[in-house]
UniProtKB/TrEMBL annotation:
Taxonomic path: Bacteria, Bacillati, Actinomycetota, Actinomycetes, Streptosporangiales
GO molecular function: dTDP-4-dehydrorhamnose reductase activity
Record domain RmlD-like substrate binding: where: 8-269
Enzyme class: oxidoreductase
Superkingdom, taxonomy of origin: Bacteria
Stored InterPro entries: dTDP_dehydrorham_reduct (IPR005913), NAD(P)-bd_dom_sf (IPR036291), RmlD-like-bd (IPR029903)
Keywords, alphabetical: NADP, Oxidoreductase
Organism: Actinoallomurus bryophytorum
The keyword NADP is assigned to this record: yes
Family matches, as Pfam families: RmlD_sub_bind
Similarity field: Belongs to the dTDP-4-dehydrorhamnose reductase family.
Protein known as: dTDP-4-dehydrorhamnose reductase
Length: 306
């Protein structure tokens, strides 16, 4: 399978790497060349999703068997201040990609921000009511791609991993840096998530693409945690002190425009045979897997405590 991955950031790169590990090829496409080296086995092509000709040219040049859509912007606070540009990239961009793909299988990685956040957790059958400009733009993209009949929308909860070189490091990376260096880390006590390891998102994406699934599917991790609780688990798992953590309310912080409950569960995943053996790991196991990269001394200290 030759997969065209629209988006060359941390998650796009991991999905591309997963597709090559499964024996296929992947071409990462974005407006700018990735800041870091593309994963082994992948290529890069320039693409601006806002331009229908750019989309058509990219699909024609790559000649993919399937398309994964995981491009930005995904900085929710930035999107709130730039709602029109966000809609142009995610909403109009989806329409341009749908026209260019012309019936090819498409997987859109979407977001928990399509929900209001008033419920404890959200399944596929729950009513959407976007919490912010990012959620509205992603929902517009979802609807456009689902109309093709060949698309799968994979809504994911807060994705994490070790990403020190990324344009906007994820919360795990931010926490580890602050804990390690003794710098303050704002950790909201009233913002709930079901964090999911980036490798689990990539594994599900690869399996679902190969199975040809369509419709809507949710992927969240098994833990429902406030950011403050999660940050404390990271500190404990890496053997770091939690002194830098500041228990705060999300109001007045960069998390203010996010839904209170950014939590997902799936009503559908258990019936899909291609997901057997791909159960998302909890945050403690995720921390253990990332320890070597995030903090080279951590594995030895973890072993000593066992």
């Amino acid at each position: 399978m030759l997969t065209m991955v629209v988006g060359s950031g941390y998650l796009g790169g991991r999905i591309g790497a997963r597709m090559t590990a499964l024996g296929g090829r992947a071409v990462l496409c974005s407006r700018r060349r990735p800041a870091t080296r593309s994963p082994a086995g992948t290529e890069w092509r320039e693409l601006d999703v806002r331009d229908p000709r750019s989309c058509a040219n990219a699909v024609r040049s790559v000649g993919p068997d399937a398309v994964v859509v995981v491009h930005g912007p995904s900085d929710i606070t930035w999107c709130e201040r730039h709602a029109e540009e966000t809609m142009a990239v995610h909403g109009t961009g989806a329409a341009n990609l749908a026209a260019a793909a012309a019936g090819l299988p498409i997987l859109l990685v979407s977001t928990d921000n399509v929900f209001a956040g008033s419920r404890h957790s959200y399944g596929e059958s729950d009513e959407v009511a976007p919490a912010n400009a990012y959620g509205r733009a992603k929902l517009a993209g979802e609807r456009t791609l689902l109309e093709t009949g060949t698309a799968l929308v994979l809504r994911v909860s807060l994705v994490y991993g070790w990403d020190p070189d990324g344009h906007r490091p994820n919360y795990f990376t931010t926490c580890v840096r602050g804990l390690r260096d003794g710098r303050p880390v704002d950790a909201p006590v009233d913002h709930w998530n079901t964090p999911v390891l980036v490798d689990d998102v990539a594994a599900w994406s690869g399996a679902l693409l190969r199975a040809g699934r369509t419709g809507v599917l949710h992927l969240g991790g098994p833990d429902r945690l406030s950011r403050h609780e999660w940050a404390g688990r990271i500190a404990k798992g890496l053997g770091l002190g939690d002194g830098p953590l500041r228990a705060v309310s999300k109001a007045g912080t960069a998390y203010a425009c996010r839904p209170d409950n950014a939590c997902l569960h799936s009503e559908r995943a258990g019936s899909l045979p291609e997901l057997d053996g791909l159960r998302p790991v909890d945050v403690d196991e995720g921390t253990r897997r990332l320890a070597t990269a995030a903090l080279p001394a951590a594995p030895r200290s973890l072993e000593d405590r066992q």
